[in-house]
Amino acid sequence: MPFGYNGKILRVDLSKREVSVEAQDEVFYRRFMGGRCLALYYLLREMRPGVNPLGPENKLIFSTSVVTGAPAPGLARFNVSAKSPLTIGTYGESQAGGFWGPELKFAGYDAIIVEGRAEKPVYLWIQDENIEIRDAAHLWGKDIAEAEDAIRRDHGDRLIRVAQIGVAGENLVRYASILNECKHANGRSGMGAVMGSKELRAVAVRGHKRVELKDREGVSRIARVFADSFMENPSNKGLNIFGTSELIDTLNEWGQLPTRNFQTGFIEGAHNISGGAMRETILLRGEGCFACPVRCKRVVKAEKPYVVDPRYGGPEYETCAALGSDCGITGLEAVAKGNELCNRYGLDTISAGAAIAFAMECYENGILTREDAGGIDLRFGNEDAMVSMVEAIARREGLGDMLAEGVMRAAEKIGKGAERFALHAKGQEVPMHDPRGKVGLGMQYALSFAGGDHIQAEHDVDFDFTAPEVYLEQAKVLGILERLDRLDFSLKKVRMIYYLQHHFSFLDTLCGCVFGFAPVRAMTMAQLVDLVSAVTGWETGLWELMKLGERGTNMARAFNVREGLTRVDDRIPQRFFEAVTGGPLKGASLSRKEFERALKAYYRMAGWNPETGIPTEEKLYELDIGWVAEELRRHGKLPRGDD
Amino acid sequence: MPFGYNGKILRVDLSKREVSVEAQDEVFYRRFMGGRCLALYYLLREMRPGVNPLGPENKLIFSTSVVTGAPAPGLARFNVSAKSPLTIGTYGESQAGGFWGPELKFAGYDAIIVEGRAEKPVYLWIQDENIEIRDAAHLWGKDIAEAEDAIRRDHGDRLIRVAQIGVAGENLVRYASILNECKHANGRSGMGAVMGSKELRAVAVRGHKRVELKDREGVSRIARVFADSFMENPSNKGLNIFGTSELIDTLNEWGQLPTRNFQTGFIEGAHNISGGAMRETILLRGEGCFACPVRCKRVVKAEKPYVVDPRYGGPEYETCAALGSDCGITGLEAVAKGNELCNRYGLDTISAGAAIAFAMECYENGILTREDAGGIDLRFGNEDAMVSMVEAIARREGLGDMLAEGVMRAAEKIGKGAERFALHAKGQEVPMHDPRGKVGLGMQYALSFAGGDHIQAEHDVDFDFTAPEVYLEQAKVLGILERLDRLDFSLKKVRMIYYLQHHFSFLDTLCGCVFGFAPVRAMTMAQLVDLVSAVTGWETGLWELMKLGERGTNMARAFNVREGLTRVDDRIPQRFFEAVTGGPLKGASLSRKEFERALKAYYRMAGWNPETGIPTEEKLYELDIGWVAEELRRHGKLPRGDD
Fold first, then answer.
1. Residue A117 reports pLDDT greater than 70
2. A51 falls within a domain
3. Which of A39, A190, B514, B543 could form a disulfide with A542 if both were Cys (CB 3.0 to 4.6 A apart)?
4. ipTM value of the model?
């Protein structure tokens, strides 16, 4: 009997302090598989629209997938979903690597649905069949590492895996993250704030089962092939040696490294915050996730000018850019310190950096004063200011309290035209990629269910005329047969993004790592399909997986539609339609006309009504989720009857 | 370098008596692969709409695919395409098995584009690099077997493979077929008439090259697995033992065996014309196509009441029903004789049988008289009448001349309400499956590019509640996870047909045999994907192949749109909306309202304009054939500009 059939879903009602275990049949697991689709199944079925994301009615769902925890690279991640408190009421989601996801599977569960709100701080303790809602008074207010140690001490077991919020989550910072192992973050869309609103400090897991593999030898074989060959792939090799911040030098050279709140894309001294420089200075070691040989994560240690604790890992590319160049900063220790604090307190580094960059631009334009900033000289490039602001945001002190709301809400509060510096989509701060240098990314920002997000699809720049041949070769199986310029905005580009989006969406449903499975990486699509088949025993294929991805995209869209979003919410900051002010990309801007035309074409291509942006009934039935169409109809979002 | 890259396309201009060889690059082969897509590429690029299908401007394209001729089961078929002379001006296409397709590959060619018209009868002689347009005076008017023998004698080589028309093609019978080995027919949509209009009697091929295989051992391994296991699959086992006419008993039992021009679906004595009865009486042996162990083809021999020559093979299910039950006949030797004559003269057995059944119903209703029929008592069940009419049609004698035009044109000529007995879609006679017993088939008939055609998709009945578990298991990889009643006409059924159609369409582009590769057969989808990869060296997958299939469907649709067809042409005979008059299915009829709703849903699901049935620009770009949108726009079939 296939593995998925034996899956269990844990339901925890914190208000009633009740725990139950539910089962779903194999068709359910094959149709939804895990991650995004599994979470959205419950959110669409069980939650009504309009709930307060920080109220007890919101549901916080931890989900793995049918392949999570299998001993092969890229299957270590888990997903956290809820209605986002950061955005304009969208579906929120974030994934993290590490060891927590596999551990949940070892305990025998595919997912946890957390409902209600505890009366006082608690944490959830899961040890195989033993599930307890435990008091967390001794953890509240503590740094992440302290709390992790305390939980492990509580149970006398150092192998317990803890996913938890820090003080930022306790303080309902709208972009609070969830950390596991003190360094793997579910960063985006404020899942930590939802967790905080439920007074749930941590979910601690210890499991003793093995993940069932239908073809254990098949899984091992693929894992061995990957381990033996990944260094031959330029992307995986770079990740292994330099980590994700390898990207800094290239993007700066191209003029696409977000600098001073995206005013420009080039900064002198960028190399200081690159993976190469890190390797030569503060890097202790690389680290990896469960069963992965790539070890792309960084662990850094510094003494001056900032003391940086290696317990909290090291900065990724996004962090180096958000707390670095985007704040006008090129001091690696400062960036590493900012990163350490974000992890110590449970803050998303992207949104935190973006919020600080926003504040700096407001400051330099006289919209925020030194007094507003509590005496801090909030100019671009001020490392101490950045580090102080991270602390202030986590603790909601002074200006930090306002920035803890995210740039959209902060700009509203500040007024004075501050919104032109608030770079967000659907309320979420845009990450560290500039669509003026790769236009497909602009579509991603506009179309992403939770706004500013850079991993909704492989970036189109990876298949342009500068990309290595191996990338294009691996994209062919997705139907991408020819290169396309990074600035091309034709229907061909719309198609490319549409297809690539399915792919990343099914990875998010399988909780697969894009660093293992994207077309530009060492693992081929055939290997991925074989891996899913070997674990589940299902004869699957890329059609089924791509449609799984599209299903996830449409379920998320339906969530947003039900919440009242329309196509006018698919927009990106005005800044991207204005010229880059300096660097190699100086003068580049997106064409609004081309952008709008591409979006409209996307809706039609996606089977969405081009006037409303709402998925058609036929598309939802095509994706085998006709009940979602009925749900939208019930809420007046789809026309009745034949038309 | 992948195999497809070395492909060659032969172009033969019969008017100018010129022969040339062309090449296409690897991206072309990967995007179009062969068969349907390759043919439509040239028809859409090079032919203007409105040409006379029987004039020199029509192009007749013989195409194989990148996998044809590889030594594995199901890869023996080839495709013939042109504008159809039988239909209302649609794209026409027909595929045949046997040995001719592989032989063309052994000679080094993927396709032949035949243009113009010869001044007098010719045949094409292809021996590797040697290509000749030769005189065919000695073949003209001859039976198929005589002509085949003559060509082999011409060149002193008994291994020459000959695809040829017979006297029916010479006489431009609108449903004339093309035969190879005297028994494998490109039967449907009148490709033999197009060949006849070009005065091209035959294409004779002898090749001495090997098909390049990137992974010869991989191909062998899959072929071995198939050979070792296909008898475990109920469908393949039945095909091996009984041939396709195994189906007769089941359909009759279900009340779905077309009888007396589809008036009913049950006939006493049906078992006489079944595969089981054939095996016990006139069967000499089973035969197969190149490299296939299933050997589903029948070879029969009889002495009385009809002498049947085994050289012309034996009747398939379609033939047993068309010349048998649909004409009210259950005499196996009569059916076998009718089949032999159809093959001897080059007539499509389905359209021939349907035309005779039409005439019989006209006769029984007094619309055709005994005088009209040249003294023949044309009542249902008259075996001699059926056999005589096959002769008369091929020779265009008497009433046969009118029936040689197909039922649509014959009914127009007859008048007197005869059109209510003319069971065709888009001008092509419907084959031997009744949509009142499996509603998805009605959609196929309506949507098929060339009208009445039963192999546009696996029949929905194969996934209903009576189907073996193994069928459903293999359909899961296409996204079909649950059974659906054969009479279900919901959006779920529309989706099922839509998906199954992609699958059959890519088989028609790969020139793959549906008896090898459909989800109800022994070959799994994973094996099929592996086979394509092993032959071509491309890491392909089901996404790419399913999109290939959808591309073919849309290219054919675009051909028809360019010819002026609209959604009102997507219709099926009124008879299917009326009650079956007897048998187990008595009283059953299609609901016109449900049918229209399903069609409209299909258009939306397919990315076609629901008002016009025309593919949207976005769908065509999505399928990587944006140039087809531009072509439609050039002909005023797509709106200009942004909308």
1. yes
2. yes
3. B543
4. 0.96
The pTM of this model reads 0.97
pLDDT of res. B639: 78
Whether A211 is covered by a domain: the verdict is: no
Give the domain CATH number at B630: 1.10.599.10
Residue A533 and residue B526: Cβ atoms within 8 Å? Answer: yes
Q: Is B642 inside a domain boundary? A: no
Q: Do residues A570 and A444 lie in contact, with contact meaning Cβ atoms separated by under 8 Å?
A: no
Same domain, A241 and A186: no
Q: Which two tokens mark A630? A: 């009925």
Beta carbons of A543 and B539 less than 8 Å apart: no
B528–chain A Cβ distance below 8 A for any pair: no
Quick one: average pLDDT of B262-288? 97
**A27 with B482: Cβ contact below 8 A:** yes
Q: Are residues A587 and A621 in the same domain?
A: yes
Q: Do B498 and A622 touch (CB under 8 A)?
A: yes
Which of B31, B477, B495 is facing A541, going by the closest CB pair? B477
Q: Of all residues in chain B, what percent carry a pLDDT higher than 90? A: 97
Length of chain A: 643
CB contact under 8 A, A479 and B529: no
pLDDT in tens, B208-250: 999 999 999 999 999 999 999 999 999 999 999 999 999 999 9
Gap between the Cα atoms of B534 and B215, Å rounded: 5
Same-domain pairing of B259 and B342: yes
Alpha carbons B555 and A515: distance in angstroms, whole number: 37
| Interface contacts A/B by beta carbons within 8 Å | 128
Type of residue found at A525: M
A386 and A463 housed in the same domain = no
State the Cα–Cα distance between residues A427 and A563, nearest whole angstrom. 14
Condensed to tens digits (0 to 9), the pLDDT of residues B544-574 reads 999 999 999 999 999 999 999 999 999 999 9
Angle at A274 between CA A273 and CA A278, to 5 degrees: 80
Claim to verify: residue A157 and residue A197 sit in the same structural domain: yes
Which residue in the block uniquely carries the two structure tokens 């093995």? A210
Same domain, B463 and B348: no
**Angstroms from A356 CA to nearest CA on chain B:** 40
For residue B277, give the CATH number of its domain: 1.10.569.10
The per-residue pLDDT of chain B, averaged, comes to 96
A570: left (phi over 0), alpha (psi -120 to 50) or beta: beta
- Do A522 and A415 fall into the same domain? no
At A565-620, the pLDDT tens digits run 999 999 999 999 999 999 999 999 999 999 999 999 999 999 999 999 999 999 99
Domain range spanning residue A542? 439-634
The pLDDT mean for chain A works out to: 96
Asked if A401 and A317 sit in the same domain, the reply is yes
Q: How far is CA B171 from CA B326, B345, B410, B411, in A?
A: 25, 10, 16, 20
Residue after which a domain boundary falls, among B159, B181, B206: B206
Question: Cα–Cα distance between B448 and A131 in angstroms, integer?
Answer: 57
| Number of structural domains found in chain B | 3
Residue A152 vs residues A69, A98, A110, A240, A427: alpha-carbon distances, Å? 21, 17, 23, 30, 37
Last residue of a domain, one of B401, B429, B457: B429
Residue A7 pLDDT > 90, yes or no? no
Decide if A643 is inside a domain: no
Q: Is the pLDDT of residue B588 over 90?
A: yes
A58 inside 8 A of chain B by CB: no
**Per-residue model confidence as pLDDT tens digits over A326-349:** 999 999 999 999 999 999 999 999
Beta strands in B97-226 (DSSP E): 111-115, 122-127, 130-135, 161-164, 178-180, 184-186, 200-206
Give the pair of three-digit tokens for residue B143. Answer: 């039976």
Looking up residue A162, the CATH number of its domain turns out to be 3.60.9.10
Name residue, tokens 């990724």: A316
- Answer whether A633 touches B (CB < 8 Å): no
